[in-house]
Design a protein that fits this description.
Blueprint lengths: L1 H24 L13 H4 L8 H5 L4 E4 L2 E6 L5 E6 L6 E2 L5 E7 L2 E6 L5 E6 L6 E7 L4 E4 L2 E6 L5 E6 L6 E7 L8
Amino acid sequence: MRKLSKKIILVSTLLIITILILAGCSSATTPSSSQSSSASTAAVNTIGNTPGNLVNGGSVAQQGDWFYYINYSDNLYLYKNRTDGTGRTKLNSDKSWYVNVVGDWIYYINNSDNGYLYKIRTDGTGKTKLNGDQSYEHINVVGDWIYYANFSDKDYLYKIRTDGTGETKLNNDKSQSINVVG
């Protein structure tokens, strides 16, 4: 078990380093006065995370100049950091999984609260439990919808709006590794 924990920490560290390196390799531009003064408007996600990362626990998601990640060295709590390595901030004290970032919100599974679906603002305020379904894993945020395997209902596929309304059962089949496109 101890060997597995060390491997998880090593893989997480390598993932974060890779993201930082890739972010550093992108071309940096400074907006001219004719461009929009709000850089964050151009960098807003409509899909919360990549399919490959979600299949592996959704431990990191990027939006604009920030990446949001599960800190394996601090009880799986949610943190954010700028891609230049500055601004490290702890956002919650929840054991978090399947991080998805869309707009001003981070959506995640809260394993400190039995695997329920939560959201929190990207500044760490406004933590909200979205429903009474245990999800545990496999969530995918696309636009205004969250798709998830409902552990409370045999892992059947459900969707719910990002504000917690409109919960809809989509099938009667066990669903895992959800990948919603569009």
